[in-house]
Model the fold of this input.
Amino acid sequence: MLRARDLWIDEKARRAGYENGAALASAHGVKPYRIDQLYRAAAKELVADLEAITTLPKELRTALGATGFALDAVEPVVIQRSSDGQTTKGLFRLHDGNEVEAVLMEHHGGRTTVCISSQAGCAYACTFCSTGQAGFTRNLSATEIFDQARYFATQLARAGRRITNVVFMGMGEPFAAYDEVMGAVALLNDPQGFGLGHRHITISTVGLVDKIDRFADEHTQVNLAISLHAPTDATRSKLMPVNRKWSTEALLGAVARYIDKTHRKVFFEYVMLAGVNDGDEHARDLARLMQGPLYHVNLIPYNSTPDAALRGSEERRIWEFAKILEQHGVGVTVRTPMGRDIAAACGQLRAETQPRAKAS
Ligand code: SAH
Done:
């Protein structure tokens, strides 16, 4: 069983030059409970930095600081807010100079969702996605992923508010960084720490069949979303190169096994592209693939990206498409785009993934 606290402290300790958390504690001549205090302050009490952890002796804080020990593995570089104030995008720098983006969405009604990145860049090259066009650099570590959520949580905590949902829909393919993402889920969920329920977490995948099978065996209540985007191989392969490895049929087979095992609802994401996948026949084909009440379609209005020669469907077409699905008894919702003015909407995240020093 993965212990979130150990995962967090060992990774932070390694970055400060120690073998693990235990080595850090003994090097500083402190009992392990001091390390627990450190973790609790960061993950549960959401203090901003080491200096603010007043339950720790001042000398220990100073000594740890001198080793380069930091609570956060990600450093906010640019924070932007949308004009309606509902969306905040953060650009974060990692220790090696790579950068990723994460987005906070403050919905009407009090729900607050953080969309986090699992990789610097992405190897899957979906034609409509900005991250995919920029190429792949590396997986993030569990705490680099978790700390994006921690950043926004510390900001919200100052106003007495908290994060209610976390979605792995930022940069990268979460299932290609499977172990790191599961580590981040353990950190998000830890009742001794961040304490976010599994049902408030969603992982979105391009459709890595072997990982969907593995995920089904985790027996977790974490939600699964599948980026389907087309009901046939011909169209899906054009949009998503991953479809040449795992066909639509193979993907839906994995989903059926997942549903058999978990009895959990699966969310199918479908970006609406004018003249590409938004016809009546596509809606009917899609309806045929959706095998009952546990198959839910989420239509996503296309958000423009710098390179793609694609156009989003008109709003009216999106609702007509939804109507056809409904007429076939398929559960469907239309996603409200947020943060387009700061390029923070789905598919628009594209941090520089190379060290800044090299870029300039
Ligand atoms: N790699 C994961 C997470 C990616 S982002 C995945 O593919 O699921 C989350 C969602 O945004 C995915 O469904 C993705 O296909 C979608 N998306 C990507 N580019 C988009 C764009 N330009 N407009 C709207 N949605 C987009």
About this structure: The two ends are 44 Å apart (CA to CA). The pocket of S-adenosyl-L-homocysteine is lined by residues 126, 128-129, 169, 173, 204-206, 227, 269, 271, 300, 302-303, 305, 346-347 (CB under 6 Å). The chain has two domains: 4-66, 75-342. The first strand starts at residue 75 and ends at 81.
